[in-house]
Request: fold
Amino acid sequence: MLLDLLAEGLVPWNVWAIVAYTLIVTHITIVSVTVFLHRHSAHRALELHPALAHFFRFWLWITTGMGTKEWTAIHRKHHATCETAEDPHSPQVMGLGKIFWKGVEMYRLAGTPETLARYGAGSPDDWVERNLYSKHTWLGIILMATTNVLLFGGIGITIWAIQMVWIPLFAAGVINGIGHFWGYRNYECGDAARNILPWGILIGGEELHNNHHTYPNSAKLSSKPWEFDIGWFWIRLFETFGLARVRSKGPVARRVEGKASLDLDTAWAILNDRFRVMSRYAEQVITPSVRTEYGKADAATRRVLRRARKALARESSIVTQRQQSTIDYVVKASHELRLIYEHRLALNEVWAKRANAEELLSGLRAWCVKAEQSGIHALQEFVTELKTYAMPAPRTA
Reply:
């Protein structure tokens, strides 16, 4: 009887039943990581009902053996030290191969007492955490393996093995590795984070990594209309049932039609949403200017101009040697491209050097005057748009 149970399990199954079960349990794990560990625990972007939060803690204990405090602390350190020698898992520093294949090992090495003490504040510290989840990490994993075998027999071991590699592969390997190496960027944040795909189910929305590093305290990771964050879908569903409350969706600025002057409200709105402002600069100023120059250039210059749009918009601290060569070439070849590049750098300096609100406003006004006097139509149009920015209107009761 016992041998039959171990061979066949309690549940009659076929291939499709096994596939469905595996996808469901691994998806619950991804949701636990992205909603609970990442957006709730590490970034405090949302609050969760205690019952739901504890379910996630239990599920992660049986499917990954990860402790909430350890994951939270290491992730916060990653943001604080991103792309430096102190970063626990930067492929830019350690190499993509090392992070992709040894990401879990990097996590274990980073989980020092000093890291946990410095970055792990606010993590669960109740009796269950101290005496079960953190103390007996392998007990939960054994419980999951036993459950799978009881349900499906011998094939349950295969299902369990897939569960065990799911997070190391997708979270440690794909997100921490590829997400800082390949992909597209909506915003020029100060590190190499990239969006891997505009949509995804297997990674729970975490593939929108550039969006997250730009606005780390946002509970919503999608930004563009074509991007889909399934983690946000679950958060909204939990909200519907009173199990979650979103605290932040990132900085928001509004546009006031007909507004034609820079004031303190405009200055704060631009500062608050500066990454989107610079994304608009790339779309409205850099891209059309590069296209114009491309139409006038010779064959050799055109080859360089194909790379110029991204290079001219790139955050200065992460410009590669090749990109810098592209920038040097095009600013010498084109007076207009030199001006729009210099204006982009100068606009970044306005908020980088701000000391108070009045200095911020004064710096923006001076920048706008120079941009309007540049004679470049795209720059002048951009200034007109900047003046329409304002902080969100207060909600009425």
About this structure: The first strand starts at residue 46 and ends at 48. The chain is about 65% helix and 5% strand. The chain has a mean pLDDT of 91. The beta strands are 46-48, 199-200, 228-229, 244-246, 254-255, 389-390.
